[in-house]
Each structure stands twice: as C-alpha cells, then as structure tokens.
Give the backbone structure.
Amino acid sequence: MITSQVVLKKGREKSVLNRHPWIFSGSIERVEGDPTDGDVVDVWDNRARFVARGIINQNSQITIRILTWDQNQLIGEGFWRGRLERAISVRESLAADPLTDAYRLVHSEADGLPGLIVDRYGPWLVVQFLSLATETNKATIISHLADLTAPQGIFNRSEDTVREKEGLVPVTGPIWGEVPPDLVEINENGFRFLVDIKMGQKTGFYLDQRENRKIAGSYFGGAEVLNAFVYSGAFAVYAAAGGATRIINVDTSEAILKLAERNMRRNGFGGREDVYAGADVFELLRTYRDYGWHFNVIVLDPPKFAASKSQVAGALRGYKDINLLGMKLLHPGGYLITFSCSGAVSPDLFQKVLFEAAVDAKRDVQIVERLGQSLDHPVLLTFPESQYLKGFICRVW
Ligand code: SAH
C-alpha cells in the first residue's frame, strides 16, 4: 500500500516524464501522508496526474529515486528480484566467457536499480549501496543476489562519499557468506590479476576499462611506453603482452605500484626492464619534457578530476595539461591512449580539450579510436549521467 504522495511544482514533471530517474527537492510542491525516508511514494503532477513511483529521502537533494513509471508495478520482493534478474541475464555472455570472470553485474540507474553497484570477482560479489533507496532494501537485495548468483561470499564496500549526501555513514565488511581473502585472483581476457576487493579503489579493479585494454593491446608492438596512472597495472600487463619493449609505470602510490609489479610477474612479465616510478604524473611529464625524452605510446588514465559540475573548469585545465605534455612527449607517429572518467565532462568537451592541446603542442593529431566504458556498464539513454568514461586513441605526428 502506497499511502504517501508527492506533488510536483507546475512543469517540473517534464524531466520525470522523460524518464530521468531523479527528482530534486526544488521540484517538489508538497509531500502528503508524512512518509518516512526510505518509503515508496507516488509522484503526481500539479494537475493530479500520476507521473512515477519511487523512494523518498528528504535528507537528500535527490529527494526521490524513481523506480517505475508504471502505475501497476508494485515495489515489493518481486520488483527487486525482477530488476536483478534482468541485469544478470544481459551479462550471460560475459558469464560464459572462459577468459573473463570479473565484471559489473549491476550498474545502478542504468540497470533500473538507482544507487546499487554489484561487481563480480570470480566467486565473490562486491556491493555498494549508494542511495537510501537501496540501503533500505539491502536485506532483500542481498538475499535475491545470493539466490540468483550463488557466490561464495558478498562483501559490502558502501563507502563512497555520495552516501553522505544521502545521510548514510560508510559501511565496509562482509555481508553474506564467506569472508573473501585480502587479495582475490581474477581473470580478464585471459590475464590474471590480484584484486584488493576489501580496500582497493572503487570495488577493487577498474572493470570499466576491460574492453579498452583489449583494444589498446594492439598498439604496443615494439613500443617504449609511458603508462601514467597505473593503479594495479592492468594496462601494463596488456602492453607487455602486446610487445612493448619497456614500460615506465607512474603512480603516486608506492603500495599500488608493488601490486602492479606483482600482477606483471603473475602474467610472466617479471624480470623485464620496466620501471615502476612513484611520482606525480604532472611533475614527471615536465621532467621528461625537460630531458627531451620521447615515447612510442603514452597511456593517460587519470582519476576523476571533476566530481561535480562546479569542478569542470579545473578538471579541463588538468586534462589539457597532461594531454598537451603527452603529445609533446611522443615520437612522430606515436600513440596517445587517453581517458577521462569524469561524468561531468562530456565526450565532446573532452575532444575539445584534446583539440586545444594539439594546437598548443603544434602537433597533427588523428583520432583513430573512440572508446567508452565496458558493455557491462551500460549507458541509459534517458540518464546521461550514466555515461562517464570516454577515451581516444590518437596518432600524434
Ligand atoms: N589505469 C588504471 C586505473 C587508474 S586509476 C587501471 O586500468 O586499472 C588512477 C590512479 O592514478 C590511481 O592509482 C591513483 O593512485 C593515481 N594517481 C592519482 N593522481 C595521481 C598523480 N597526480 N600522479 C600519479 N598518479 C596519480
């Protein structure tokens, strides 16, 4: 029984009717029925027409997370199970791939489950409940996930700062089944990686780059490579397998570089001439420029520079800086493999930054590949925020 109703201000139903799944506090005219945060509510326009159904959180700027636009769909056990089944079923071909056993099972709004991330690492699942809507229904979600995927254990990494905006505290720890070891071994396109699912970045591994790494893999033959922003060394492994003669790996975190080196060894790429440099990429690129060093391939996969719209201008300066230096450091005909994972920076805007970098670097730059996020991180057409990762492979003359 849905007892509470939310009435929108005049005209504010438009974005909801366009199937955007968030309603901001400023769009709400009034709330009737005194709902508790986490309750299911019906949303009406100011002429008493049903618009959608979702979960309310009056503690959050995103006050309602829409779950359905169908008045006949009830939000009970069947709803959560149905959405989980749908997300799992579209990943069946990945599940059947003998070369890969780590991928995203649930990609939040884009899979109709706002604020829920589920990543699979072999027999383990890692979950993130990033909205009160999913946090309130945690027990139901976990029990259906366990039933549908039969994992060895499920680990909760609900620590992202977005939880604060939902009025939730960070939570980390085992939530179902066995406790995973500190490092879990996964397979990606036939390569093996140790993943720290308990403490590593995101849920432990950058699963969104899986397909890009495979594509990039064919550009490394005979190349001297600068691999900037290494994390656990995934691009380094593909570069070595692709025939790179020497890889200079740069990351600020020395601990992370140790894991990257272990992952290289695990794939048979120990004992090479590769370098693992604990340094700031912005500084090291300048040092190499001053030395007059050049590379055949440069990978730039930085962390998110813009977490919100207000940070976009600064982020663009950062992207331009590293890409400009990257272009200058390439031998003519070399490749720049460059990414941005800031959702607030559109692919067009990122391309514009590369344009400006090319002009200032005085280099001819050809786009040879346009990259996005792996297919298990779908983009919901009506929710542009679900597209965040974009990349280009450029040939630089
Ligand atoms: N390419 C990786 C993911 C990179 S994540 C992969 O495919 O798995 C971004 C990484 O950049 C993190 O490991 C972080 O430690 C590192 N980092 C962040 N700022 C940095 C800086 N200014 N210089 C060097 N490394 C940085």
